[in-house]
């Protein structure tokens, strides 16, 4: 285990409020060439997965009364999972990662990057540029942007509800007020919900089986997330036994392949929270939920009573996770964002390339890394509630994960240190052309799937998801099973 690995995992585990003595339960199989980059991406990925697996092992121990299981982190599994969307095949067909208008563009004074994968974001981008759908093309957009200032494009597209970010260096980003707001926040901050009622009893969950050991068995999760980071978190909770129900508005379908990649282990339903009947169905789900995870802009769902304080008032003892791109403080708090855009704003694209030719990380590591940190925070929250804690909230931020990558992680030397507590071994180098140990295949209602296996591993834990993904929004809005809730009442 490298000093950098210890540093990264210790930082994440400390941010989660974990017992530092448990870090000795973690070992790593180090592999050269996994997630190669100028920045310590392999280190970030290892640390996020290690913290998540350790939080799962800790919860398993708390529920069984046995020793915390040993955690295993394999660079091969981690690197493959961090690009799971690239390894997905549906009946042999590979997904398209980015739409034609989601890319870097030359401007008169530099570069911007846009995101237009979703139809409504594409429409807003074109509107800001004065283009109709019929007149839109890569060549036409390129010609318009080539005559514009990058900052003007960012401002005008953002004002129209679209997504465009000007390329910045890390130093330029550090001078931005949003960067200051992000840097002032902790990497993770799992804390009691303001004004929530104190715990009235210890959370009760059904006894755990041992084959496999599923630490989140019996936990009900409402998943109101989209894209990658939030769905990766809830996909991980589903792996660990949680009953995860994804809820989407009928008018905003998820990209089909994206939903497939992150839908393992879950069910998926559609509810319009502005409709009286659908809202009643959601409130019924909430009465039995243990965890609510949202992935919309801060405040975007408050009108539906989905702020942590409002949720905890209706369902005391919830764990609430609110994921966002830019955080809930600063001038960009209400702005839309994606991993690719945070990379451009924060200076990562320059660090991986240059101001003349921006680059990218070898994975959407901010998304995937933040997703595993979010899952870890939920698991730690559940462990705390077994001891009587009340409602808890955590607000992971992609831009804060970017700050960690840029400024707080030691360079990845690719070496391991013998004799250290929990030290691992150097294994065969990671070869992108030979990934059989970390890929699997299954049949599903969507067709034959090839997919990346989960990287979260501990002794006795699950090796794969219990169910493949299904079609988007086709499940009923009900929980799959009943259980004994707090105070022993049947729910």
Describe this structure in words.
With 491 residues, the protein is α/β, with parallel strands linked by helices. 35% of the residues lie in helices and 12% in strands. The protein is built from 17 helices and 17 strands. The chain has helices spanning 3-15, 41-64, 75-81, 84-87, 119-128, 138-146, 150-159, 170-174, 177-183, 229-239, 256-262, 276-286, 308-314, 339-346, 348-351, 365-386, 398-408; strands at residues 26-30, 71-74, 89-90, 104-106, 111-114, 164-166, 191-192, 220-224, 243-248, 267-270, 291-294, 319-322, 392-394, 425-426, 439-442, 449-452, 457-458. The protein has a seven-stranded mixed sheet with strand order 7-13-12-11-8-9-10, with helices on both faces. The chain has a four-stranded mixed sheet with strand order 14-1-2-17. Strands 3-16-15 form a three-stranded antiparallel sheet. Helix 10 (229-239) crosses helix 16 (365-386) and helix 16 packs across helix 17 (398-408). The longest helix has 24 residues, at 41-64. The radius of gyration is 22 Å and the shape is globular. Residues 1-6, 415-423 and 483-491 have low confidence and may be disordered.
């Amino acid at each position: 285990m490298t000093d950098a690995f210890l540093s990264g995992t210790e930082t994440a585990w400390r941010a989660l409020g974990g017992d530092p003595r448990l870090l000795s339960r973690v070992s790593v199989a180090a592999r050269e060439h996994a997630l190669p980059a100028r920045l310590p991406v392999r280190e970030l990925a290892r640390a996020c997965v290690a913290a998540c697996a350790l939080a799962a092992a800790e919860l398993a121990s708390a529920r069984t009364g046995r020793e915390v299981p040993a955690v295993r982190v394999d660079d091969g599994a981690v690197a493959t999972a961090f690009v799971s969307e690239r390894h997905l095949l549906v009946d042999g067909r590979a997904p398209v990662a980015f739409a034609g208008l989601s890319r870097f563009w030359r401007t008169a004074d530099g570069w911007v990057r846009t995101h237009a994968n979703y139809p409504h974001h594409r429409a807003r981008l074109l509107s800001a540029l004065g283009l109709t759908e019929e007149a839109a093309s890569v060549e036409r957009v390129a010609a318009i942007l080539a005559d514009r200032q990058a900052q003007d494009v960012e401002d005008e597209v953002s004002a129209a509800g679209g997504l465009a970010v000007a390329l910045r260096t890390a130093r330029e980003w550090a001078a931005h007020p949003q960067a200051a707001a992000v840097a002032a926040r902790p990497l993770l901050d799992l804390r009691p919900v303001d004004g929530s009622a104190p715990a009235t009893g210890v959370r009760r969950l059904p006894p755990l089986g041992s084959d496999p050991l599923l630490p989140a068995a019996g936990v009900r999760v409402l998943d109101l997330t989209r894209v990658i980071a939030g769905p990766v978190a809830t996909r991980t909770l589903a792996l660990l036994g949680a009953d995860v129900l994804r809820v989407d508005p009928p008018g905003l379908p998820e990209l089909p392949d994206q939903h497939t990649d992150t839908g393992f282990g879950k069910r998926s339903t559609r509810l319009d929270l502005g409709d009286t009947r659908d809202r009643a169905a959601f409130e019924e789900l909430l009465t039995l939920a243990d965890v609510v995870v949202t992935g919309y802009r801060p405040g975007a769902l408050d009108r539906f009573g989905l702020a942590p304080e409002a949720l905890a008032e209706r369902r005391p003892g919830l764990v609430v996770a609110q994921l966002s791109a830019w955080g809930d403080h600063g001038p960009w708090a209400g702005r839309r964002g994606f991993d690719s855009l945070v990379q451009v704003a924060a200076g990562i694209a320059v660090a991986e390339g240059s101001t003349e030719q921006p680059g990218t990380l070898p994975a959407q590591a901010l998304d995937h890394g933040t997703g595993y940190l979010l899952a870890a925070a939920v698991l730690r929250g559940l462990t705390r509630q077994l001891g009587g804690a009340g409602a808890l909230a955590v607000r992971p931020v992609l831009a804060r994960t970017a700050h960690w990558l840029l400024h707080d992680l030691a360079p990845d030397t690719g070496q391991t240190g013998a004799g250290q507590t929990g030290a691992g071994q150097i294994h065969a180098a990671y070869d992108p052309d030979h990934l059989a140990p970390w890929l699997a295949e299954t049949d599903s209602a969507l067709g034959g799937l090839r997919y990346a296996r989960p990287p979260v591993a501990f002794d006795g834990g699950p090796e794969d998801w219990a169910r493949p993904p299904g079609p988007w929004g086709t499940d009923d809005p009900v929980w799959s099973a009943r259980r004994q809730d707090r105070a022993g009442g049947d729910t």
